Amino acid sequence: ITPIRNAFGRMGLPAPDFGLIPQVKPALQAIDVDDSGRLWVRATTNDTTRTVFDVWDGSTGKQLAMVTAPWRIGSAWRPLIRGDTMHTVVLNENDVPVVVRAVIRK
Asked: pTM here?
């Protein structure tokens, strides 16, 4: 919190009201739909090195798979999944956004 207060102070802004930040994170970070109607669900985690998806059949509700991507997708970025290919933006080791294309293997 101190670095944030200092940064706001350097910019001449009042410190944010940290009381407005929830103490508990939501269970789900995002739900995305691919071109086959499958739901790709991202749970909220503290893992900064990878992203885990639970993949569900959109019509039956049956869980199909758990897919682990070897990079962290920022919460604001949404993957585009078509067939066996995912396009998304990931954050590199310096938190710089980078576009990636990945083939999904079964």
From this structure: 0.74
